[in-house]
Inverse folding.
């Protein structure tokens, strides 16, 4: 009998309690004070936009960004936070102190605490004035800041995939010990979370993540291997940064999201399904033990998941606006149909690699994620063909053994080692 045949699956089959409560917040008193990590990125900008529409609900108390000082200064003048931090980003040659001086010239020092350097991201993440931290910094930078926020018992709206993929066990442990909560910003996980409102994990049979399938879902596997950068950057339904757009084209993104779902909801990998849904209208589904399915639908849009994560599930009225296409009325009749198909593991080997690393557990997902970053970078710099991305990841995973995750220092060391191995492979395969 497969575990899915059991009439009552129960919590016994969960790896841990879900990190997110399944009840939307009601009866809020006062404004929600938000610290935004990664304010100049795509999610950060949409978050500030959304919060500007609801000045009675949100107060921005902290802003942190990498090195886009002009935009950060503009945002700081708009929202007047207490703390503004410029980190300099990963591996930047510019001295963060110079960036801070540039920032000071742009906004003045009066009324702001100005911080500089990657290490200060954690100061913004733990600032006492913040009720919730939006972790939207890209890459590993968000990891220690997310853990610091959770260690301080904060609520975290998590837009950064790497934190859960690289350090899932550390995040689970921190939530368990310090009572912080994690709210998903990724649209698929937000959809699952919304389907779980009022439900109990006892009643859940399976989570089903939808994938757009990227631009090459119908292409011949041999042709996919030769794809160029411009083609790969053209995503059919979502506007996103280059790294995640390539991850969507390889379906690596969906594999990373399965790992994310595993940690967020405590559900084993054999109960996470993936279905290709090219129009990205159904954002994901939950299948229950009685055979019922719930789905969350809407236009492809990040503002709604960002809003729900920041309000702990409280729904706010969305203003209709020309500048916000996802605020237009939704019409099933206009859509006509909702197409679905099974994912092809032959066309998209990265999906199988990610699910395999998730099942292996320990540091395997950290190795996978590091190798993927190096490989995608090499492809974007035209050092390597599209088909070699999966080869770099597969060989990196094959040459480093997974060990149980024990500390942040350990996963960062594994990450650095995996990057070295993957960079060498890029040179051989490039
Ligand atoms: Mg997503």
């Amino acid at each position: 009998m497969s575990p899915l045949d059991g009439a009552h699956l129960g919590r016994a089959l969960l790896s841990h309690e879900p990190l997110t409560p399944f009840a939307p917040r009601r009866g809020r008193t006062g404004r929600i004070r938000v610290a935004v990590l990664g304010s100049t990125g795509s999610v950060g900008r949409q978050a500030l936009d959304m919060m500007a529409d609801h000045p009675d609900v949100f107060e921005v108390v902290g802003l942190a960004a990498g090195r886009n000082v002009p935009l950060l200064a503009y945002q700081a003048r708009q929202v007047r936070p207490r703390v503004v931090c410029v980190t300099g980003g990963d591996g930047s040659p510019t001295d963060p102190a110079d960036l801070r001086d540039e920032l000071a010239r742009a906004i003045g020092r009066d009324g702001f605490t100005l911080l500089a350097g990657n290490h200060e991201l954690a100061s913004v993440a733990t600032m006492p004035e913040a009720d919730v931290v939006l972790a939207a910094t890209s890459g590993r930078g968000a990891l220690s800041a997310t853990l610091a926020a959770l260690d301080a018992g904060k609520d975290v709206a998590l837009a950064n995939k790497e934190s859960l993929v690289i350090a899932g066990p550390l995040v689970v442990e921190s939530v368990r010990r310090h009572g912080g909560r994690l709210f998903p910003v990724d649209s698929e996980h937000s959809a699952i979370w919304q389907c779980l409102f009022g439900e109990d994990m006892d009643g859940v049979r399976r989570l089903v993540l939808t994938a757009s399938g990227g631009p090459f879902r119908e292409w011949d596997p041999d042709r996919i291997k030769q794809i160029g950068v411009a083609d790969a950057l053209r995503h059919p339904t979502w506007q996103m940064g280059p790294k995640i757009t390539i991850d969507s084209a390889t379906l690596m993104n969906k594999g990373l999201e399965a790992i994310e779902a595993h940690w967020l909801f405590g559900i084993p990998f054999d109960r996470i399904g993936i279905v290709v849904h090219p129009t990205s209208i159904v954002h994901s589904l939950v299948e229950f033990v009685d055979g019922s399915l719930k789905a969350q639908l809407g236009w492809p849009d990040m503002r709604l998941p960002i809003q729900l994560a920041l309000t702990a599930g409280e729904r706010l009225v969305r203003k209709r606006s020309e500048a916000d296409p996802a605020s237009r009325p939704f019409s099933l009749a206009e859509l006509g149909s909702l197409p679905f198909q099974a994912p092809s593991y032959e066309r998209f080997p990265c999906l199988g690699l990610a699910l395999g690393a998730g099942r292996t557990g320990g540091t395997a997902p950290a190795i996978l994620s590091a190798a993927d970053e190096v490989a995608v970078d090499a492809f974007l710099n035209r050092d390597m063909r599209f088909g070699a991305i999966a080869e770099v990841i597969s060989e990196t995973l094959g040459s480093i053994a997974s060990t149980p995750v024990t500390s942040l220092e350990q996963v960062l060391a594994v990450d650095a080692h995996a990057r070295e191995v993957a960079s060498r492979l890029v040179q051989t395969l490039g």
